[in-house]
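Dear colleague,

Following up on Tuesday's group meeting, I ran the structure prediction for the two-component complex that the binding team flagged. I've pasted the input sequences exactly as they went in, so you can double-check that nothing got truncated or mislabelled along the way. The structure tokens for the whole assembly follow below. Feel free to forward this to whoever is handling the docking comparison.

Inputs:
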Amino acid sequence: MNAIKSLEDLKKIREQALEKRKLKETSGAAQVIVGMGTCGIAAGARETMKAILDYIEKNNIENVIVTQTGCIGLCEQEPIVQVAIGETEKITYGKVIGEVAEKIVAEHVVNGNVVKDFIIAA
Amino acid sequence: MAYFRSHVLVCNDPECLGKGSMEIMAALEAELKKQGLNNEVEVLDTPRIGSCENGPEILVYPEGHHYLHLQKNDIPYLVEEQFLKGRAVEELLAKPKTDAAQELREPTEKEVRVVLRNCGEINPENIEDYIAADGYAALAKVISETKPDQVIENIKNSGLRGRGGAGFPTWLKWSLTRKAEGSKKFVVCNADEGDPGAFMNRSVLEGDPHSVVEGMTIAAYAIGASQGYIYCRAEYPIAVRTVNIAIDQARELGLLGKHIFGTDFTFDLEVRQGAGAFVCGEETALIASIEGKRGEPRPRPPFPAAEGVFGYPTNINNVETYANVPQILLKGPEWFASMGTEKSKGTKTFALAGDVKNTGLIEVPFGITLREIIYDVGGGIKNDRPFKAVQTGGPMGGCLPENYLDLPVDYEKLTEAGSIMGSGGMVVMDDETCMVDIARFFMEFIQDESCGKCVPCRVGTRRMLEILTRICDGEGRDGDIELLESLSDEIREDSLCGLGKGAPNPVVITLNHFRHEYEVHIYNKECPAKVCRALINYEINPANCVGCTLCAKNCPVDAISGERKQTHVIDPDICIRCGICKQVCNFDAVVVK
């Protein structure tokens, strides 16, 4: 990206960013978002992230984007992982440790089945 | 590999199979071929979608449409609508799962996310995410359209007050710094967040650092500053890292540095780390620390607005104060002022902790009651135990008992009640909390953190701690309460800075609302909440004990004796009152007296 010298430049970057996001959604790619705030990390989010990445690599799962985010606010439920497939609504999972992370990738990301037991209900 | 624009997953789980999923799959393939779509839409079978009792079922991607109860003659219409016209067939769609679709961080209706709007929604290490969420649009607008005085006027109309705890009108601080004389000016962000249990600022710095960068840049523009510091406590290494990444990214894009947005305005930022001193959250001690000196407060006036960092006019605000600024300027001061109470506008973040079910970070408009926060947003007390008190404002705040639950939360009301807003820590306490122990706990913290510069704080808090410790140890004396009260008065009046002045608060307010608890400790040598170790005894109730030996096995000091299947006994002289026996007992046989 080039330096922003005017309001138009800023607007252009905003448009591009929004376009990119839309593309991600309509391509049907799965987005896995891991909460990596200090609360998450204290609860083991680094291991969760690693488990997810390892599983994806080992099983050659394509069309998945794994990103991180900050503290969502519900620190009680960390590590928190959110999954959004294409344009479907984001599902938020809580207490995602070890095998649960793999289960979520295997069942929800790959097969589209939400893992009911770990969804954070309202 | 062929590229398919759409995928259809057909469940071929035995249950769906039994309901005819294979015919559905064949019908789909046939119909798609008929319509010439078989190279665009792929049909796959999948082991289980999840609603086999409503099968046969299919899932269409990328839309995520979930169809149930399919029959063969539904297929032609479905293919036409879904794949040719791009429309869902409503009648066949599964009803949305209400609980699955609702993440808890859909905040409860009582919450309004202004400061926390991006936390958990964006990747904080990607400036593009922030820009996509209208980031830096406020800065652009301000620099191109608004004169500095007008910016301050807008902040004034919003009613924004400092979120660090004192609630000083933000516009006034900016205005005073703007008017002050100095060849250069500084903007400082107080990210020390020393209150135990408070982590609102950390979450913003880790989750949405650019909101603070943008807020500070706007402040610098309004005040005429060219250099800024974010003073972040070293205990937040991730926040420090994230903020540094954000600053680098902003600089790369020309949003920090020289000629921002092509104008004459120049501003740059730097992170300075604290080193573990609570007192460095106090503004003059913080400034001393930035200057490389020992973190000790100094008398005011002069206030930092007149003489701050290295003697230059400095505006120092809390993380949350800055994080509110871009939204106020983008959405307009009236929008912000429409939330909250008459004198406390906008929202406040709170770190809800303690004996509450939903611990974590919340953001609510001022005016919400403590009851709503604790029970509606917080989900109520853990294990549904009775509520005893809620501590607001951190170690210099006060514990408010049950009759204050309907207090609307704002600066004035909390001060009237004898507590303070502080930076937003809120610790909920149930009936198993001893208020004298709480007062002692906070006094211990304050004593540890006292910088030592002035006698009333340095010596006074130590004396108060000694008295409180004696009371908790069962050695309270007649006259202790009166001594605590007179010490409190003196320390409050004579201390140099806020730490000292606020140090007696927990004692004063617990004496106010829970005096009888102190008296029982002193005169009866009892702790009603069964917390103070010197005043409690762990005993085994023979009626419930079955002699399983679990307690004896787990006792760290071997204080329990007994034969298998015989009632066990705890030796009170050896027992250290750790409570492990009570935890492991499956028969409720351990009682605390």
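The two ends of chain B are 74 Å apart (CA to CA).

Cheers,
M.
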